[in-house]
TrEMBL record:
The organism of origin for this protein: Euhalothece natronophila Z-M001
Signal sequence residues: none
CDD domains associated with the record: DUF820-like
Record keyword Hydrolase present: yes
Record GO terms (molecular function): endonuclease activity
A Pfam family assignment: Uma2
Protein name: Uma2 family endonuclease
Domain Putative restriction endonuclease: from-to ranges: 13-173
Length: 192
């Protein structure tokens, strides 16, 4: 999460929607505060596009919708809104909304140095309160690595670590694909 926007008073969700429509950049809305939703590296963008394509192609013709980083999600049970890199919803309730979705079964965040701690910590704590969410995939933009947080039928979250040679399994949408499909041809440079 990037720092709160200076000189902006606490806003209601409705005021936030109206204010953000007039902005060039995107902003997350957490506990009445507005936070800039920063851009990422070239690899961040390429990985997000590739994954979005894999998911959208797999779900074509289904009742599920794949959204990119322009699709705002409402944190279930709150008035908080975030912009994940990729979301998938198969919930009919999300078809009735135009400014956000609330019930994704899959959320993907492509990690960057400035957001990784927030994506793994505070953001995941918010997301996991959603009763529909089954898979939360964290994707490295500097190494061929993905971490999948998967909710078991018991409600317990487990972490599955993937690396080169592995097949990613997203049970939420019944999809498996080799990790190389996302990273092929990219120059990966580990951050210091």
């Amino acid at each position: 999460m990037v720092t709160a926007k200076d000189n902006i008073p606490h806003l209601t969700p409705e005021e936030y929607f109206a204010w953000e429509e007039k902005q060039i950049d995107k902003y997350e809305y957490i506990d009445g505060e507005i936070y800039a939703s920063g851009g990422g590296s070239k690899n961040h963008s390429l990985i997000a596009v590739r994954l979005t394509t894999v998911l959208a192609n797999h779900l074509e013709g289904s009742n599920c919708e794949t959204g990119n980083s322009d699709l705002r999600i409402n944190i279930a049970g709150t008035n908080d809104y975030t912009y994940p890199d990729i979301t998938v919803t198969c919930d009919e309730r999300d078809r009735a909304t135009t400014q956000f979705i609330t019930y994704p079964c899959l959320i993907v965040e492509v990690l960057s140095k400035s957001t990784e701690a927030y994506d793994r910590g505070g953001k995941f704590r918010m997301y996991r309160n959603n009763p529909i969410l089954q898979d939360y995939l964290l994707v490295s933009s500097t190494r061929m690595e993905m971490d999948l947080y998967h909710k078991k039928e018991t409600g317990e979250w487990i972490i599955i670590n993937y690396e080169e040679g592995d097949t990613i399994e997203l049970k939420s949408i019944n999809l498996s694909f080799p990790i190389e499909q996302v990273y092929c041809g990219l120059t990966l440079t580990p951050e210091d």
